[in-house]
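WARN retry 2 of 3 for item q-0093 after timeout on previous attempt; input resubmitted unchanged.
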Amino acid sequence: MKLYTKTGDQGQTSLVGGRVDKNHVRVEAYGTIDEANSVIGWAMTLLQDERFRDIYQELQRIQHELFDCGGDLAIVGEKMPYKVKPDMVAFLEERIDVYIQQAPPLERFILPGGSPQAAALHMARTVTRRAERYVVALMKQQQTNEVVLQYMNRLSDYLFAVARVVNARLQVKDVEYERSAIVFRDKNEKEGELE
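OK item q-0093 returned
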């Protein structure tokens, strides 16, 4: 099998149901998801310590699910079942709830970083946010699996929570943004305050 096909030499690529320009918003969306997947893979190389076994296994699952996201976005006008389902979003929410309890309380914005492992996860988070923006742009133009948008939104939250837990397990303190007001409060503390 050859790795090159030469079919994209004119600036177009094949999707399920047609061809589009390589700078089409649909290609930008699933291409940026692929980029996020690559950054997650890099982060995983830094998380092979036994202390992070749970996180490593979850990230491996997420890598497969990101391929599902990209596959769903590559479907144009075809009647095919989507792979990304609400239970995948629910899994991320469950894990976020667990990890929030494992990190120190959060009141202010924090700077991405701390440990190299957390910095890599923050990088994955920001690429995931960019992918999410492309998915929003795509949804304004064409039909696609709306659950992918929910998944990308939760994934960025998950990566934030995990980055903080990694720092906590390494006993590395998150660096608070020095001009940040208190912006995160417990809902029971003061209703109506900015969270």
